[in-house]
Write a structure and sequence with these properties.
By secondary structure, the chain is an alpha/beta fold. Helices cover about 25% and strands about 35% of the residues. It has six helices and 13 strands. The chain has a seven-stranded mixed β-sheet. Strand 1, helix 1 and strand 2 form a beta-alpha-beta unit. The chain is globular.
Length: about 190
């Protein structure tokens, strides 16, 4: 069973729709017991960092998430809130990844929106994905490069397009909106 974390965010249903297209059953929930028992957990994200973090704290999901042992995938804001802090609203994150989230410099168009390629893909979630395949991004903040970086995207500067630490995987891009390439990444995650 796949648990999709519910927090009144923007793309929770689109993640479930992507799983439905892959014939994978899932449940959207903020129930800690269901999340703990799930085979895999997905934390989608569209929204503002501080208000989303407050919603997680209300259900004590900010404490639960870092303790999970099953494969876990954070997407976009989900990835950013897994970091230690975020410049958006001076938000403290969950600290799964000991890195900071910063706002893109004002030297180009922000947000970074649209299709972009990745480099240095080094995680098993990129199995059978070709170097020239694009993923879909929508974000104004980015995760800095770090030892957790498993792929890099370049927009105004190089940033972490994905991260991994133990059972925690995260993508800045939206696999659920990235067509066949995103479907392959989701399949790879679901095989873990």
């Amino acid at each position: 069973m796949i648990a999709i974390i519910k927090y009144n965010g923007g793309n929770v249903n689109s993640v479930q729709n992507a799983l439905n297209r892959l014939d994978i059953k899932s449940v959207i929930t903020d129930d800690p017991e269901i999340i703990q028992k799930a085979d895999k957990v997905i934390f989608p994200g569209v929204g503002e960092a501080s208000s989303t973090m407050n919603l997680l704290k209300e259900k004590e999901l900010d404490l639960l998430i870092p303790s999970l042992k099953q494969p876990f995938l954070g997407i976009c804001l989900g990835m950013q809130l897994m970091c230690k802090d975020n410049e958006e609203g001076n938000t403290s994150g969950m600290g799964v990844f000991d890195i900071s989230v910063k706002r893109f410099p004002a030297k180009g168009i922000v947000p970074h929106m649209g299709w972009n390629t990745l480099s240095d893909c080094s995680s098993m979630i990129f199995t059978d994905i070709q170097k020239e395949n694009d993923f879909y991004f929508v974000h104004s903040y980015y995760c800095e490069l770090s030892p957790y970086t498993t792929s890099v995207c370049d927009y105004l500067l190089p940033f972490s397009a994905s991260l991994q630490k133990d059972n925690f995987f995260a993508t800045q891009f939206h696999p659920e909106k990235s067509g066949k390439t995103g479907n392959q990444l989701l399949k790879n995650f679901l095989k873990l």
